[in-house]
Amino acid sequence: MTLLSALMPSLGKADVIPPEIARAVNHALALPALIAPEILGSPRGCGGDSPAPAPEHSLVLTFRLANDQGASDLLPTESWEGRSDDLGHTHGYGATLEVRLADGSRFTVILSNDLFSARTDDDSRVDAEGVRFVQQHFTEEQKLLLRWDNRLAGRTLYVSAAAGAHFLDSTPTDLPTSSAAQQTVWHHWVNENTPARFAERVQVADERGLRVGALGEARLGVQPRLLRARGRAGDLEIRVYAETGVELSTQAGASQWISDGGVRLESAGPRLPFVGRPRITGEAGATSRVHAEGVVVEPHTEVTLGTDLLELGATWRGYEGPLPNHVLYNLPGLNQPDGGNDSLSGFFVRTRF
Length: 353
Fold this sequence. Notes:
Elements: H1 3-7, H2 19-41, E1 59-67, E2 88-100, E3 106-126, E4 132-149, E5 157-169, H3 179-193, E6 200-203, E7 210-222, E8 225-231, E9 234-249, E10 256-268, E11 278-291, E12 294-307, E13 310-317, E14 344-352
Parallel strand pairs: 4-6
Antiparallel strand pairs: 1-2, 1-14, 2-3, 3-4, 4-5, 5-7, 7-9, 8-9, 9-10, 10-11, 11-12, 12-13, 13-14
């Protein structure tokens, strides 16, 4: 039965509409239902049906490490300075816990800690064994946020909002949660256990101590789909994305207007016993930050390999332009041949429950 004949049950046999016309009318009436999910937003993988199914893994835990020298830390070198100045934005880590909801939205708890450093005037000494020590001032930037967003719902338009605490700390400590303490331990371990050589760091307090602030952000984004393919070999989806928004902080000079854009590829193979579907994702884009010192552009890439249960990934981020320096020690790369900024490499592991 066609839609048109269902709406006109009183038609007699003499009034029957030719099948070709009826099919054309039905196709025209069905067209908005086919295109509306992409424009108005339907849950990913639901073909426009609503509501979305419950997520298979509702808890996602990610842990990240970042370093301005990446794996080159472990390569042999004859210099105590290593392969870069190891100043400015040098080390960092982060952890996120996502709670994914049935409608494709999620709440995420975000913890990040980044180290920024600069040498003091009395910056180095060499001990009896020939090991070089460098004194440095530093700031640890720590953020603790709760974020809500609906990007994973697969809608073309998505939003996110977050609020939390913003700490700047220049107090030396041996706590393992301190990125400055981690740098000290890492350099010592590299010198003791690898052919590489790095000046060991002595963290020196400045007069600023701990500063506590509040942080909030709001962003609006679009992610139109370029390609979606499904088959026995797996699924492939490619989207471009662009988002913009504001990050407001009570810390002096820390507020920024942030815009980001790029292309994202997601691929998943057929389901395997115990581990779920193998996955490959890739992303490339650029972020711009309008801040108190100017505008910095940050090209970035990310590659992830794994399964539904466990993923490993690597990231790279560059910096072109004046750096935001509310942390005081976000310096350009001193050893870069063009006087530009160091890049930052990262590694992460993600698990789903």
